[in-house]
Design brief:
Blueprint (H helix, E strand, L loop, with lengths): L2 H6 L35 H26 L14 H8 L7 E4 L4 H6 L4 H8 L23 E4 L7 H14 L7 E6 L6 H12 L4 E7 L2 E2 L2 E2 L10 H7 L2 E6 L3 H16 L5 E6 L21 H8 L3 H9 L6 H24 L7 H4 L19 E4 H15 L3 E5 L15 H5 L4 E3 L4 H13 L3 E6 L9 H8 L2 H4 L9 E6 L14 H5 L5 E3 L4 H13 L4 E6 L6 E4 L13 E4 L4 E5 L2 H15 L4 E5 L2 E3 L4 H10 L2 E8 L4 H10 L12 E5 L8 H7 L3 H12 L4
Parallel strand pairs: 1-2, 1-3, 3-4, 4-8, 7-8, 10-11, 10-12, 12-13, 13-15, 14-15, 18-19, 18-21, 21-22
Antiparallel strand pairs: 5-6, 9-16, 14-20, 17-19
């Protein structure tokens, strides 16, 4: 029975009135492809190596499946059994300096690049000898020395990272370009970031290879019920990039297409998409071969595809060249024996040490220059100009820094913080992007993994919400889930731009969201000096940093000496004003308001100490604790919302650390009302906090009326 006929008998595949037909035609019907593989003019040694590599992947995954069944492996495992030709055929043309990223079924991608089987199995067991030191499991694999930069189970999550790595490769400016490679399934093509990435790669003519392993299923759902066509290459046609659709169970066909398209990318002819039409034999997750059969696909369909086994087909064709089945059986037996031995040894290997749990979250402090800083002439600048000065210094003194984001060529979009930097340093280092928050941020993360220190700019932090996967799932977690072996050295600028009746989607201060994430440093400068110096320190940090500047701070002015390199890990909260009666703790523009409030309080006979946190993740509470120990009163001030916000964290962090009985009054906080920002002018006046609000709350606390 044909695949179409089998589906016609299953109500699950009935889409009334749609009249769905396959654009892949014979490629999507395994009964039409039983012929032997055309070996063309490929050398026998090359074909035998491909046979070896596919068998290695197959046996490794079978051993892993057995270990899951036995209960040795607990983490989710996504197997690529039946799909080996796609990864091996593409990897045949990759080199160790290329930058490949994987997805769910990345055992095959990792092994096809030549990475060790032993470290893969140890990783699935969670052992410290694993390729990600036991922190990644089956889904987070790492072998950068082999050109495999990492894998994640977030659908389409690594596509923008690979685009960024391709951007870095283009910046490297080699005669024969390295390529960025993203392996992913057909389901990823339903994600918006995939289309953003196609557009960026095409627009910038990047050496980027999109490898779609179109196995016709996303999790449990047939492509016919998810897309109007089963031909993924149609998206490449829309993006006007090179592409090919091939029989993904024919390793020679994959090798031929990949060789052509990768070669063009290396020569600077732009990105390409390779669609490998294939089929996974087992369930979406786990070792069970029958998990989908009878519910979401038929047994006959699976059996038909197994007849197109990429290993069996290549072996059959190689027999015509004198390679025997006895030779293959000896090859397979040797591989299986070694992998089983690797598995047994891995079971005995040690677990990660408990100290590694926190040890991988942030980079270690750098060696600091203890030489005194000479007194030098100063220059007057405002807050926005100070940020620009930070960019200028970095672009001039650090060749691995570049800027990427919307509006960076505009004379107004990001205020005066970027004025004419593109003219000064060139538009190959100050790069304006399409409206693609997710892809641009992910690309910046990917470029950082390829040796650069990108700055990605979001003109409004509200718009940055579209990039949260790249920030929260990729940048913040990359070092930890790979055992601290690699770090996303990326700086993300999120600009708060409130007021002026801009309403709920243009006025948000979302810093508390991101301060919740371990692995992501969050910096919020309040002063002109910090706007420049903390920005420089952020970009030179070996951790991902979210640098948040507030447009309400831009009117401040100060005289600054020349810039210099600064280690972000040495930055501590600052006492901006000393006092004895009450401690005000804040960050960013709330510090400016708190200082204004402190001046008002002074006229009332109340002495307020103002603490500027400067960095809100991780928070250093020590300075505030010392202050509250002296004053006995704590007022947390924040330009965000009250519920689960920074002000509440300040109160919790300080009160947990001061001695019992220290406080003379209950802690207080001044924040926004827990409502979206209004557009109406009168409502804005009562919505946003003011220095008067802060002073009034402080008076009540000191006078015992709080």
């Amino acid at each position: 029975m044909s695949t179409k006929a089998a589906r016609a008998q299953n109500a699950f595949y009935t889409v009334p009135g749609q009249g769905w037909t396959s654009d892949l035609k014979d490629l999507a019907d395994p009964t039409c492809f039983t012929a032997a593989i055309d070996l063309k003019n490929v050398a026998t040694d090359t074909l035998v190596k491909a046979l070896h590599d596919m068998t290695l992947i197959r046996v490794a995954e079978e051993v892993i499946a057995d270990m899951v069944v036995a209960g040795d492996i607990k983490c989710p495992t996504h197997l690529a059994i039946g799909q080996e030709a796609a990864s091996v055929g593409v990897a045949a043309h990759l080199r160790a300096t290329d930058r490949a990223f994987g997805c769910h079924r990345s055992h095959s991608h990792y092994l096809a690049m030549g990475a060790p089987v032993k470290e893969l199995i140890a990783e699935t067991l969670g052992k410290v000898t694993g390729c990600s030191k036991g922190f990644g499991g089956s889904m987070h694999l790492f072998a950068k020395e082999f050109g495999f930069y990492g894998s994640v189970p977030i659908v389409a999550g690594t596509i923008p990272l690979a685009v960024g790595a391709a951007m870095a490769a283009k910046m490297d400016n080699k005669d024969s370009l390295d390529v960025g490679v993203a392996y992913f399934g057909d389901g990823a093509c339903e994600e918006g970031v995939f289309h953003e990435c196609l557009n960026i790669a095409a627009s910038f003519k990047l050496p980027m290879i999109f490898v779609v392993e179109n196995n016709l299923f996303s999790s449990h759902l047939d492509i016919h019920l998810r897309q109007p066509s089963d031909k993924i290459a149609r998206f490449a046609e829309a993006a006007k990039i090179n592409h090919a659709t091939v029989d993904g169970n024919d390793v020679v066909a994959v090798m031929e297409a990949a060789g052509d398209l990768i070669g063009k990318a290396r020569r600077g002819e732009g990105p390409a998409l390779i669609e490998c039409v294939t089929y996974r034999w087992r369930g979406h997750v786990g070792p069970d071969e029958n998990i989908d059969v009878g519910v979401r696909r038929t047994a006959a369909e699976v059996a038909a595809w197994k007849k197109r086994d990429p290993i069996g087909r290549l072996l059959q064709s190689l027999e015509a060249r004198g390679y025997t089945r006895a030779q293959y059986e000896e090859l397979e037996a040797g591989i299986r024996k070694q992998i089983i031995a690797d598995g047994e040894q891995s079971k005995k290997d040690p677990w990660p040490d408990n100290s590694m749990l926190l040890g991988t979250v942030y980079a270690a402090p750098k060696k600091t220059d203890t030489k005194p800083v000479a007194v030098t002439p100063t220059k007057t600048m405002n807050y926005g100009e100070a940020i620009r000065a930070g960019h200028e210094y970095l672009l001039e003194h650090h060749k691995d820094v570049f800027v990427f984001g919307q509006g960076v060529w505009s004379p107004w979009y990001v205020g005066n913080s970027m004025t004419d930097l593109d003219k000064q340093f060139g538009r190959d280092r100050v790069i304006d992007t399409p409206v693609s928050e997710a892809a641009a941020t992910g690309a910046a993360v990917g470029a950082s993994l390829a040796g650069y220190r990108p700055i990605v700019i979001h003109p409004r932090i509200d718009f940055m919400i579209l990039a949260t996967d790249a920030i929260t799932n990729q940048a913040a977690k990359w070092a930890h889930m790979l055992g601290g072996q690699d770090r996303a050295k990326v700086t993300i600028r999120g600009i708060i731009n409130r007021g002026g009746e801009q309403g709920a989607q243009h006025s948000q201060a979302l810093h508390s969201w991101f301060a919740h994430l371990p692995g992501l440093r969050v910096v919020m400068p309040a002063t002109v000096a910090d706007a420049r110096d903390l920005f420089i320190a952020s970009v030179l940090s070996d951790d991902p940093v979210l640098f948040i500047d507030d447009r309400w701070c831009y009117d401040q002015k100060d005289d600054l000496p020349p810039a210099r390199d600064i280690d972000l890990t040495t930055i501590k909260p600052a006492v901006r004003r000393e006092g004895t009666d009450i401690t005000l703790v804040a960050a960013s523009y709330s510090v400016v308001q708190s200082l204004e409030a402190a001046q008002k309080l002074e006229t009332m006979g109340i002495s307020a100490e103002v603490i500027d946190l400067r960095t809100i993740n991780p928070i250093d509470h020590s300075v505030a604790v010392q202050s509250v120990t002296k004053t006995g009163r704590l007022l947390a001030v924040d330009g965000g919302w009250s519920n689960c916000g920074l002000a509440g964290e300040i109160i919790a962090g300080v009160t947990e650390r001061v001695a019992f009985g220290t406080l003379k009054a209950m802690p207080g906080r001044v924040t926004l009302t827990d409502a979206p920002a209004p557009t109406s002018r009168p409502l804005e006046k009562i919505y946003y906090t003011s220095a008067d609000d802060i002073a009034a709350r402080a008076v009540a606390m000191v006078k015992g009326r709080a």
